[in-house]
Amino acid sequence: MTVTAPAGFDAAGIAAGIKRTGALDLAVIVNRGPSQAGAAVFTSNRAKANPILWSQQVAADGVVSAIVLNSGGANCFTGHQGFQVTHRTAEAAATALGVSAGDVLVCSTGLIGDQLDGEVLEEGVLSAVNRLASDDAAGLDAARAIMTTDTKPKTVVVTGDGWSIGGMAKGAGMLAPGLATMLVVITTDADLPADTLDRALRAATRVTFDRLDSDGCMSTNDQVTLLASGASGVAPDEASFTESLTEACRDLALQLQGDAEGASHDIVIEVRGAETEGDAVEVGRSVARNNLFKAAIFGNDPNWGRVLAAIGTASAPFDPYLVDVTMNGVRVCHSGGPDRPRDEVDLTPRTTHVLIELHAGEASATILTNDLTHDYVHENSAYSS
Amino acid sequence: MTVTAPAGFDAAGIAAGIKRTGALDLAVIVNRGPSQAGAAVFTSNRAKANPILWSQQVAADGVVSAIVLNSGGANCFTGHQGFQVTHRTAEAAATALGVSAGDVLVCSTGLIGDQLDGEVLEEGVLSAVNRLASDDAAGLDAARAIMTTDTKPKTVVVTGDGWSIGGMAKGAGMLAPGLATMLVVITTDADLPADTLDRALRAATRVTFDRLDSDGCMSTNDQVTLLASGASGVAPDEASFTESLTEACRDLALQLQGDAEGASHDIVIEVRGAETEGDAVEVGRSVARNNLFKAAIFGNDPNWGRVLAAIGTASAPFDPYLVDVTMNGVRVCHSGGPDRPRDEVDLTPRTTHVLIELHAGEASATILTNDLTHDYVHENSAYSS
Questions:
Q1: pLDDT for B83-132, tens place per residue?
Q2: Of A258, A286, A315, which one is at a domain's C-terminal end?
Q3: ipTM for the whole predicted complex goes beyond 0.95
Q4: A4 found inside a domain
Q5: B182 domain-assigned
Q6: Is B166's pLDDT higher than 70?
Q7: Same domain, yes or no, for B137 and B241?
Q8: Is 50 exceeded by the pLDDT of residue A179?
């Protein structure tokens, strides 16, 4: 159950020959309407891939007919030639589908700096359009076709009152979204205009994908797209739609965390007692990006000193000497000093909960991250070779 | 040749029993004068260890008689009890040396969050004072006594015209100074007042230790101390002293980089063509802190796309699509697109040179970092156990 679960969407995932392995590498998702409302958020990295530059233009008017996604190459820092490949991809899909190229989004993922072969992509798009279907299998093929180092496809379905949301995601490395995120496509048959979709998408991603910081490295190709077909004939109120969309995004974010490259722990960093939510996010992120802390968790070592050393680099207002730190239920630091013995903390479960109480206010936020492992280093030491 | 090379300094390094291994763990360095001018810079981490809180007060008046340094425990986040241990350490040294405790600096390094044993430290200080000597062996013992995961002592001597500078340093992890740095003691027999020493020290550290960012993790205990005995009777001009001091600091910074935990590459990130020096530092640091880039270098993989993805997160003014990247002499990226083939780049030497030309101005800066290796993860995954 994925992007084809809501009514009005067809999908396909094929092996176009972009990946040398012969694995699925190209997906097409089409919104059959009656509405073709769409919204998207993009990476805030200033180094943006060609498909991002293209898709930002396409999404601007809130009308999206289809989206083409490929793995096997990011088409980033590939110059004019790379942009032409993206354009040609959209044109090929538009011609085959009888829509305007200006309504076709393109997403790419893979190695930065290599040219994609425009002919391979064009033939792949035609082949995928011929296999479009609205069944589960087609949706799952699409979810598989966008995988890179992901070990499994990520999909979600959330059901509303007479309408539903379906989604798929990829992302295993370069996983530290800022205002936007990994490759995610979310469909709905709710009947909502583009501006509502845009608000709902920004609200949902702000507290889900934007709180996931697996390895501190922001991608050049991140994009989350929301497509609405209106095929259910139901127009839910914005609040309940946003709530369901947030649920779908959170579910996908947790799946991304759980499949992060080489990770052996899913770390939940909960910051409480901050003056503002932004302060809580900053403090949590400082811990999520601290390699020494992340390596300690890999070693099942409840080294709370590294938590405090990390948050000492944040600018949020709090007194480091009043902070409490609790790891998997054991308060190991109280008022900036040692509390319960470290050896009471059991870090063998995959999920590690770190609670940081700042005693500076009432705001809170949770950041999701992963540990720093041998396998992370291994997977990322020879990705391009 | 180390801190005892300049005239007027005695040193000792002993095994006080702080480390369970029985290795050297306590050093004392005494300035015998005639001058007792001193200056120090401290970590800008808001989470500061007790010895930092103490030493900031001691250094404020520019008079420093002695410095006590211990490894085997950071005395950080150890509350009032920890501060009392630092105070007791300074008092013990002051009494034994016949000086004021308010003129005795204290530095500690090791695990955060564990209490040091005040009695062990006091006895250690007395024992070290009894062994003070001005010969090379005593200076080398002191340099060895501050080591933690360092594999070798780091020392330097720079000779001026009738005066000299000697130095020692430790630091292998949590190595990302901000305005200050690791544990470093530098001595000189030049006759210079404290305010001159302070200016010279800030100027030297700004372009040396502050440009070293091995693992992005800022320490709670960093301190660089400069002590001047005036024993040479020579008062060099400030510019030439600053130049020699900078040379000594750069030499020690390179030794720290070369011995960074688990590292297999010393990476020199040279940023040119920035609008300001601060912009060049920001861009260089964004690359130095990118785990994907650092893992690629470990794998001898010239993955320049990760360099561009990293600098795209910087706020410095430049156009990412105009940037050139050269790795070990091979320009792999030109104007934001592929240039020479990756396989022309040989990354097997320990030193990796990454040149980033922003084409946005005339300013430049160089940041030193290391790769992200299996050994880094291994060393840091069980440090406290």
A1: 999 999 999 999 999 999 999 999 999 888 889 999 999 999 999 999 99
A2: A258
A3: no
A4: no
A5: yes
A6: yes
A7: yes
A8: no
Q: Length of chain B in residues, anyone?
A: 385
Pairwise CB contact (< 8 Å): B333 & A77: yes
Catalytic pick among B78, B86, B181, B326: B181
Total structural domains within chain A: 2
To the nearest whole number, what is the mean pLDDT of chain B?
A: 92
**Is position A2 within any domain?**
no
Residue of B nearest to A178 (CA): B313
Residue from the list A78, A289, A385 with its beta carbon closest to the beta carbon of B338: A78
User: pLDDT at position B217, please?
Assistant: 78
To test the contact with chain A by mutation, choose from B43, B45, B77 the residue with the greatest count of A C-beta atoms within 10 A, namely: B77
Q: Say if residue B309 is in the same domain as residue B252.
A: no
User: Do B99 and B74 contact (CB within 8 A), yes or no?
Assistant: no
CATH code of the domain covering residue B303: 3.10.20.340
- The range of the structural domain enclosing residue A339 comes to 266-381
Mean model confidence pLDDT for chain A: 92
Domain ends where: A231, A258, A285? A258
Strands (E), chain A: 9-14, 26-31, 37-42, 66-70, 104-108, 154-159, 164-170, 183-188, 223-228, 266-274, 324-327, 330-334, 337-338, 351-357, 363-370
